[in-house]
């Protein structure tokens, strides 16, 4: 699986050859949500409130890196790790 970040039990993933809009998947326990990178909103799925707040704050800090990884994923290239929250 293309995990690009891990923090507070949350896994951030980007899949190769995904559909628009640019987004990533956030997994926590049995929950998963798809987050629009540019708009910083949930476009599908669910995360508990606390984990969602962490993911959205993290995504805001790393939007440029997420977009770079989105382009790499679309091109079938290796993805770069992104630092998680401490």
Strand-helix topology:
Layout: E1 3-7, E2 10-13, E3 23-28, E4 31-36, E5 41-46, H1 49-61, H2 63-74
Antiparallel strand pairs: 1-2, 2-3, 3-4, 4-5
In words, what does this structure look like?
It is a single chain. By secondary structure, this protein is of the alpha+beta class. Helices cover 29% and strands 31% of the residues. The protein is built from two helices and five strands, in the order βββββαα. It has a five-stranded antiparallel sheet with strand order 1-2-3-4-5, with helices on one face. Strand 3 (23-28) and strand 4 (31-36) form a beta hairpin. The mean pLDDT is 95.
Elements, N to C (H/E): EEEEEHH
Enumerate the spans where pLDDT stays under 50 for 5 or more consecutive residues: none
> What structural category characterises the helix and strand content?
alpha+beta
Strand ordering within the main sheet: 1-2-3-4-5
Please bin the fraction of helical residues.
Answer: 25-40%
Provide a count of the helices. Answer: 2
Number of strands: 5
Strand-residue fraction? 25-35%
What about the largest sheet?
Answer: 5 strands, antiparallel
- Overall pLDDT, averaged? 95
Radius of gyration: 12 Å
Give the N-to-C terminal Cα separation.
23 Å
Query: What general form does the structure show?
Result: globular
């Amino acid at each position: 699986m293309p995990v690009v970040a891990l923090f507070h039990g949350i896994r951030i993933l980007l899949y190769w050859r995904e559909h628009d809009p640019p987004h990533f998947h956030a997994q926590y326990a049995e929950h998963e949500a798809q987050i629009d990178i540019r708009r910083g909103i949930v476009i599908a799925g669910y995360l508990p409130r606390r984990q969602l707040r962490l993911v959205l704050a993290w995504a805001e800090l790393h939007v440029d890196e997420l977009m770079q990884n989105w382009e790499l994923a679309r091109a079938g290239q290796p993805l770069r790790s992104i630092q998680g929250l401490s």
